[in-house]
Amino acid sequence: MLVEDDDGVRRGLQLLLEGQGFAVQSFASAGPVVADPDSLTATHLVVDYALPDQDGVHLVEALRKRGWKGIGVLITAYATEPLREAAQAAGFAAVIDKPFRDSQLLNALDGRRAAPGPA
Hints:
Keywords: Phosphoprotein. InterPro entries: Bact_response_regulator, CheY-like_superfamily, Sig_transdc_resp-reg_receiver. By secondary structure, the chain is α/β, with parallel strands linked by helices. The chain has five helices and five strands. The chain has a five-stranded parallel sheet with strand order 2-1-3-4-5, with helices on both faces. The protein is globular.
């Protein structure tokens, strides 16, 4: 699963992840993710911190409260130590600073999936 409000970035990341075997469902904001019961079956989540309706950390906290057990990677242009600590407390596997290289995201996801599946 991918949540990124910038259309161009979202499309580029979707193509990257699909090229690596992920079946990607993408969203431009957090609200539709929370409303979609299928979001709880996603094995991976790549989410931007700054979303129009809710930040990425709070989104993952909400999903975890509903039983989501997947791997989360937070991408952000606003990385601070307090944000990194909040992301870790929410259960993110990694926080990646924007701009980033494709390899950074793929390395954060590498080894954290048993087989290609919904992202």
